[in-house]
């Protein structure tokens, strides 16, 4: 095997790294004779450390951008690999031995990303040992010697040994190999072998054409996006493989290289360039900016983690953002500004793909046959067909008639057509003309039709990705790429909004009838359908501006809706919905919906059944669009119950019966189900509950409680625990009957935490006999019912051990698994709100803080230590944020109104929420 050096050519890898190669080769081969392998390995390790340190120091000192650093690291690595190659030749000489014929000459080739001349700090080095004929035993020993040296240096090496013919044959059957060979770059060895391969591979590409390679890359991209995220707006993006990432840009390069043999994208600029000018200078600069920015992010990711990390998780986002110089501006944190820049870059990559890929296809494969539209309506609208897909007629100038962009989308929707790639290209290039349509009544009507029509989310996403929406609705541009630095929202604000529009469509089609039956039924009853769709479009339009985004969004709606063609009545409805779009969810999950005042307050705000229907549907769409783990059966149940109770008030129901009348009805309904009890037993049970108890449960639950209490008294049991799985609500109901004492709720909550159960709601009742009847609704970690028999049995045992003092709660809670490191970067400052307005009978405490095992135990213990009794608890989590609400009274059964007691309560709760950091946290008190 001949690995002899070819003379360096200008611009060769060896010439790019003169400070590495000559000195290192001289050290490895003093006087032309190789030093021992162990000494050589030490020399190489020191040189590798110098290379890596030099690039890292220059990059972190902001002397190099990510792309420049990647190129410099690749060039320096070329020198290292070249020196190892020279040392290998000296250690494993080739040539005639004992008269045998010399083995084939071999060229050392860089492939893959390394072949493109860019290298990330912890990326693989892909090498190809290329020859005309299969290498012999001595050649294989040389390859093995070189690879072991590279591995001993700690480098990750991808390698292959092939002949030129094998390369062509493998490329013919495997698009991945073909892609790697597109980037093949000569490093060392016999340059004539590489030249022959280059010529053969160019002939192969010309003979095979672009069509098959293009289809393979599109399929590969679709699979990759499905794996790493089909949206460019996921809040923990994969910088390399996700949509809008580096791999998408590399795919464009591969297509251009395959079709035209270009080395750099600027070669596609100008009428004399391959393809006749596929890119404008501005577009070429946009590609370079995106390429450079993503490489910079990638370098920081590698250096921060010390590994080939490509996913920008929550814990890494503030670090990388700070290293790149993003600081707080106005209401936006530095990390949010950094992530917005990243998302806007990803959006640009998506647009550039839409723009360049069809142009490459057209230039390489020829202009598709554009046929006149099949009907007069399409032809009149300026729409034609190519390959069965819709595009603009060749004689239409989009700049002169920008409304044709909306006509194209509507026509494709109405006729079930896809948009041709050339149509996407035209939309990207002409999106800026949407500015002219803002005051065009016909264009606004078209837009409203698309927004509220079939498959609205699909077409709104298209209009967003090509840049149309940001020009057409200026306020939309402010939420594009805007993320909230939390673990609750999966998407950026505009992507969440489009997802919510998609949920509306799914509700109308009946696709969610089992998951959200009430909303699925109600959406067919709403009279203000257009207003509903516009309200969903605008519900988060004012996020990121500071202040209440609901109030600001309501003002935007008042200005925008008339422009879109909505009537004054519809405009007022949209503004009201945007203003109150959080009302239903906040009430359902943070307030006691068994408290009549809660229902009456929301009914007073809503005032009409139509608005209640609209608000419920909007709430479901908003929640389901947040992320796949937000919606569950329990939340659906709470929303459903709140809706029916408010609807009853609006129909004149709830406000009519007085409290005593309602209690009497509940007692009578329960008594009717207790035929198996004696008269004395029945009267005894009916005497146990205070009014609040009778109004908190349905008759069937009262009957279960009666039998439970009868058994407990018959057996003189100090503690009774019953559990019931409610599959329809995705919860398990746990009922505890025992002697009441201070801190009871806290000890039960601690036991449930140790058992792995998450409390989502609770009702706490002290009966007239001094016993506590506490009901908890719990879920497992996945948001489902806690239903495994062995876990339910253990749960009952842990409650008994906790109440008897045999379970050391603090120690057991301390053993529970903590949250992943990537989530700890999300800051949740402790916050306490004490409200004496929300209920006529209780003080309502809302605590906000970072969720953790045992949090509810700590918080309720603090409440009990202040001498307060908990009447009910409502537990909600938003990612890593816990929002827990408690209805409490003092020992006399009254609200807590003394300022000194309120301050002590607040301080205790902040301490329970925040631990060591709590002393500096801010809390808010609203008391009357």
Automatic annotation (TrEMBL):
Substrates-to-products reaction catalysed: [protein-PII]-uridylyl-L-tyrosine + H2O = [protein-PII]-L-tyrosine + UMP + H(+); [protein-PII]-L-tyrosine + UTP = [protein-PII]-uridylyl-L-tyrosine + diphosphate
Superkingdom as given in the UniProt entry: Bacteria
Gene Ontology biological-process entries: regulation of nitrogen utilization
GO function terms (MF aspect): [protein-PII] uridylyltransferase activity; phosphoric diester hydrolase activity
Residue span(s) of domain ACT: 733-810, 844-928
Necessary cofactors: Mg(2+)
Activity regulation comment: Uridylyltransferase (UTase) activity is inhibited by glutamine, while glutamine activates uridylyl-removing (UR) activity.
Residues covered by region (Uridylyltransferase): 1-377
Keywords: Hydrolase, Magnesium, Multifunctional enzyme, Nucleotidyltransferase, Repeat, Transferase
EC number(s) on file: 2.7.7.59, 3.1.4.-
Keyword NADP appears in the UniProt entry: no
SMART domains the UniProt entry points to: HDc
Keyword match Magnesium: yes
Database matches in InterPro entries: ACT-like_dom_sf, ACT_dom, HD/PDEase_dom, HD_domain, NT_sf, PII_UdlTrfase/GS_AdlTrfase, Polymerase_NTP_transf_dom, UTase/UR
Stored Pfam families: ACT_ACR9_3rd, GlnD_UR_UTase, HD, NTP_transf_2
Boundaries of every HD domain copy: 493-609
Job description of the protein: Modifies, by uridylylation and deuridylylation, the PII regulatory proteins (GlnB and homologs), in response to the nitrogen status of the cell that GlnD senses through the glutamine level. Under low glutamine levels, catalyzes the conversion of the PII proteins and UTP to PII-UMP and PPi, while under higher glutamine levels, GlnD hydrolyzes PII-UMP to PII and UMP (deuridylylation). Thus, controls uridylylation state and activity of the PII proteins, and plays an important role in the regulation of nitrogen metabolism.
Domain comment as written in the entry: Has four distinct domains: an N-terminal nucleotidyltransferase (NT) domain responsible for UTase activity, a central HD domain that encodes UR activity, and two C-terminal ACT domains that seem to have a role in glutamine sensing.
Family statement drawn from the similarity comment of this UniProt entry: Belongs to the GlnD family.
Name of the molecule in the record: Bifunctional uridylyltransferase/uridylyl-removing enzyme
Organism in which the protein naturally occurs: Falsiroseomonas bella
